[in-house]
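Tutorial sheet, problem 5. The three components below are modelled jointly, 1192 residues in total.
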Amino acid sequence: MFKIILSRFLQGVIALVSVLTLTFFLCRLTPGNPFDNDKQIPEHIRAKIEEAWGLDQPLVVQWGKSLLNAAQGFPQPSFGNSGFSVREIIAQSFPVSFTIAVFGMLIALAIGVPAGVISASRRNTGVDYSIMSLALFGICLPTFVIGPMLAIVFGLELGWFPALGWGEPADLVLPCVTLGLFYGAYIARLSRSGMLDTLSQDFIRTAKAKGLPEWRILIIHALRGGLIPVVNYLGPAFAGLISGSFVVETIFNMPGLGTHFINAAGNRDYSLIQGTVAVLAVLILVANFLADVLQILLNPRLRGGSAETKAAS
Amino acid sequence: MVEPEIPNQDTTVNTSGRVEKGSSLGRDAWYRLKKNRVAMICLWVFVGITLLCYLAPLLPFIADPNETALDNKTAGPSLKHWVGTDHLGRDVFARILAGGRISLAVGFLATFVSMTIGVVYGTVAGFFGGRLDAIMMRIVDILYAMPFLIFVILLTTFFGNKLWLLFVAIGAVEWLTMARIVRGQVMSLTKMEFIEAARSLGLGNARIIFRHLIPNTLGPVIIYTTLTVPAVMRLEAVLSFLGLGVMPPDSSWGTLIKEGADRIVTTPGLLIYPAIIFSVTLFSLNFLGDGLRDALDPKTSKD
Amino acid sequence: MSHLLSMTPFIPNHSPCQSRRKPSSIGQGRLFDSTLLGFCFLILAPLLFSSACRRETKVEKANREGILILGNGAEPKTLDPQLIQSVGDGNIMRAVFEGLVTFHETEDSVALPGVAERWEPNEDFSVWTFHFRPDAKWSNGDPVTANDFAYAYQRILEPAFASPYASMLYFLTGAEEFNKGDTDGFSTVGVKVIDDRTLELSLIGPIDYFTEILKHATWLPVHQATIEKFGDMTDPFTDWQRPENHVGNGPFQIKSWRINHSVVVERNPHYWDAENVKLNGIVFRPLPNEYTEERAFRDGQLHYTYVLPSNLVEWYRENRPEVLRTEPYAGSYFYRCNVTKPPMDDKRVRQALAFAIDRKSLVENVTLGGQSPAYGFTPPFEGVYDPPKGVNFDPEKARSLLAEAGYPDGKGFPGFEILINTTEAHRAVAEAVQAMWKEHLNIDNVAINNQEWKVFQRTLHDLNYEVARSGWIGDYVHPTTFLTLWQTDDTNNETGWSNAEYDRLIQEALQAADPETRLARLMDAEAILLEELPILPIYWYTRVYLLDPSVKNWNPSVLDHRPFQKVDLETPERKE
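Model answer (C-alpha cells):
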C-alpha cells in the first residue's frame, strides 16, 4: 500500500512540474501582459515596471524562478491584486470554494444517486421518464440561468435566503443548490446508466432468481457496480467544482477561487495563474487518485488484479 | 447534419463479430430501436428541428436574423415576428434557427471528436494498465489542470477565428472525462470471464479492444456523449466571448441563452424561447440516447 | 491477471435466500418515500429558520449604524495612492486620504480647502503656494506637513518606483525629465518645501485650472515614516498598505480588506474636521457583474450601485424612479480609426462613416442610459467648454462623401472589421452601428470581431485593427485631459494619426497665459480633429446607477467624485 502511494506521489510531482512548466510558457506566448490597460502606460514607465517584476530577465531564468516560487508555496505577490501574495489569495479563497463544492456535491449526490437508481429500477416507465425529464431540465438550464432564477425567486421575491453575498450560513443555500441541481442532473443520468449495466449482469439475475427483495438487490448488490461511472465522473467534477465555479461565484458574489482562476487569466496575472493552476493540479491528482481507490473498493474484482495494475491505477 | 446514431454506429461497425452472435449488432440495434416508441418520437423531433434550422435560409417566411429595426425592439409575438423581437428589433425566431445551425454543428462535431479520442484513449489505458496506464492518466491529469482560457486565447491569436479551431479547443477539454469513464469501465471489463476467454483463444489486442471491450463500454459512453452535447454548446457560448466561434451579429443557442439570461426580468421571451428549443433538442437527444443504449447493449443481445 | 479467476467472482451471492416478493414491493416504495422526504427536508429545513420573521436588510442595519455600503466595480488593485489606476480605487483613496484641495459638494469646478487652508498662484498661474492648516493630522496622530506631500510627489516620480500614473505629475517643472531618468535628484523638480506648513509648486506653464488637477488621486500624500517602516521609498506593494499598517489623513481610515469581498473604512478620529463627518464607516464592495450588483441592491445589501445594466433602466424609470439616478459623466465613447490602413486612411471614408451613424437613435434605443449623442470628442463642461459641432447624422452627406472617396452607393467598398472587446454593451452598439452603415451607406461587408480584453489592448497598441471601440474618461474637469490624447507621440493616441497643426495648437493652449486664449486654441484643435476624424464620436457618457433614498447629500458629479465626509444617512419612517 505504502509503495503504491509513494509511486503515485512521485507521478504527481512530475505531473505538477509539467503543468507549471507548460502553463508558464503558454502564458508568456499569450499576447498582452499584466500591465496592458485601456489607459496605456508610457513606454519608459512600462520598462521600469517590467524590470521591477523581473519580466526583463531571460525566459529561462523567469521559468526557474517561477518553479522556485511554487516550491516555496507562492510567496510572490499577485500581479493583478498586488496587495496580496498568491499564497494569501489562495488561502483566503480556497475555503470558500471548498465549502460550496462540498455542500454542492452532497446535494448533487443526494438528488442524483437516488434519482438514477429509481429510474433504472423503473426503466422506461412513467417514473423513469419523469425523473429523467427533471434531470434533463437541470442539464439544459446552465448555472447562469438557474442561479439568477433561484436568486430572484428565493432571494428577492420570497425573501427566504440572501440573494447573494458571503458571510453567514444562509448565504450558502442558493449557490450550493444551484451547483447541486446542475451536477445532480449529471449524476442522475450517469448512475441510471451504470445501474442498468449492472442490473443486466449475471450475478443480479442470480440474486433475482434467489428471490432477494428488490431494494436489497439495488442497494447492496447493484449500486456498487452501478456507481463506477459516477465515481469516475466525480473526481474531475469535484476539482472542477472548486476551481470552476466562476459563474456561481459571480452570480452570488462570493470570494472564491473560481473567480481568481478566470480573472488571473484575464489579467495575465502570471504569478496567480501559476498558483491557481497548481491548486487545481493537486486537486485533480488527489481526486483522481481517490476515484481510482474508490473504484477498486466498489469493484471487488479489481482488488484481485496483479500488483502492477494496482500500482499503476 | 449527421443523424445522431451515426457516431455510435461507427464503433459498432467493428462489432459485426461472429464471436457471440451471427447477426450484426448494428442491424439488431436498429430493429430494437424501432420498437422503442419514445426513442423513435425523439428521433423524428430531433430530425425535424435539425431540418428546420438548416432549411431556414431557404424558407421565405423566415426573416433575416441580422436585420435590425430599432423602432421595433423587444416587441412581443406577432404575425410577422412569431416569438417577438430582441433588443435591436431582430426577429428572435430567425435568430434561434440561425443559432441552431452553429450550435448543432458544434454540438455534434465537437462531441464526436471528443468522444472518439476519449474512447480510444480510455480503452487503451484501461486495457494495457501498468506503466502505460499511469503515464496516460497523468497526461490526462495534466491537461485537466491547464488554464483553458489562456489556451484558447493563444489558439485564436495564432490561428485567428476559425471554425475548426472551435472543434479543437472544445475537443481538447471534453475528451478528458470521457477517457476516465471509459478507462474505469474497461478496467472492470478486462477482469471479466469473456475477455479472459477471448485472450485464451489467442485473439489479438486490437481485436479484443475493438470487438469486445468498446462495445461493452457503449452504455456509459452514449450517456456521457449525450451529456457532452449540451456542455459543448454552452462552452461554445463562452468561447465566442473570448473571440472564438460565432461573431456578432450572428448567434448561437449558447449566446442567445446567455444574452437572454441577463434580460430575464425585462424581456423573459429572449431567454424562454431559445431555452425551449434548446431543451426540446436535448430532451429528444437524451431519450434517443437512452433508446440507443438499450438497443446497443450487447448483454441484451444474449437474451 | 493470473489471479483473476481464483478470486471470489461475485461477492453479493452469499446473501441468504428470502421469500419472493413482487418487484413493486414496499422496499421500493420506501426508498422512494425516504428520498422524497429527505429532499423536502433539505429544502424546507433552512426555511423554518429563516422565514420566521422578515429579515432586517443589510441596508437597514447599516442605516442604524451609520455605515454606507457602496458597490465599487472591480476589486481594488492596491490601497497605495501612488500606484492606483482605476476609478474605483480612486474612490477608496478619496475616503482615506485628503489632498491639498478637496471637492465641493455640488460644484465640480470648485476646489475647497483640504489640507491647505488657503493657496495663491502667482500672476500667470505658474507657481502656486499652499498654506497648510495647523490641525491636519494623519490617522496615527502625526501632523500632516508639506514634507509629506513633497515625499509623495518624489515617490510617484522616482523612476525605480515605476508608478503607472506618474505622468499626471508632469505638470510640475522637471517632473517628466526626472521620471524618465534624464535628471538626477528630485531637487530639479518644481516642488519646494518652504516650511512645515508651506509648499510651493512650480508648473511647466500657466495653468489656471491647477486645483482641478490637484483633485486627482495621484496628488494625495503618504506618511513617510509608515512607508519606510515597511521598505524603501521606491519599493512598490510593501506591507504598509495592509489594513493594520495603513496610515491616511482622510475622513476615514482602512479597517479591513478582504479580496473580492470588501474594503471597509471607519471614521478617522484624527481627521481635522472629524466632528462634521456624518458616517461612521463605508463598505466598498467589488461587484464586477452589473446584474449581480443590481440584485444586491434589490436585496437591500447596497446603498448604491456602481452601474446599472442598460436594459434595466427602463424598468426602474417606470417602477422605481425614486432610486434611479442619471447624471452626466466626463467621458466620451467613440470608435478609433486606424488611419495607417486602407480604407480608413481616406479622410472621406471616415467622414462618411461618421455622418452615417444615427447617434440619437443609438442612445435612445440601444444604450438607453440617457447618454447624449456626441457632436464632438470632448464632452461639454458646463460653463467651461463646449466642443465645436463637428459631426451629426446626415445620411445624404455621408453617401456623397463615400461616393467622392470612390465608392458610390457602397460599390466596391473593401470592407473592414469593427474590433470590440467582449461585453454585451459594446456588442449591441457595434451591431447597431453595423446595421446603420449597411442601411445608409449600403456597405454590407463590415464585420464585427470581438477580442478578449488584453488581446484587444495589444491589437490596438500594435495598430493592427481598422475600427476599434474606445472610451475615454477625463482625469479632471478641463478639455486638456481629452485633447492632449491626439498629439502625435501620446501613448494613448493609438490611431496612427498625426497632425502638426493640431500638435501646435495644443502646445499653444498649454502655454497660453490667459484662459480665454487657451480655450480658443483647444477649440481650434478640436475643430481639426473633427474635420480629420481619426475617431468617430458616438456618445458622451452618463452615470446611471441606483441610490437608496436614505442616502443624503449625494450629488451629481461629472467625475464621479463624492466627498464622502459630507454624505449622510437618514432612516426614513418604515411602516410595519
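Marking note: Residues 44 and 160 of chain C are 60 Å apart (CA to CA). Full credit if you identified this.
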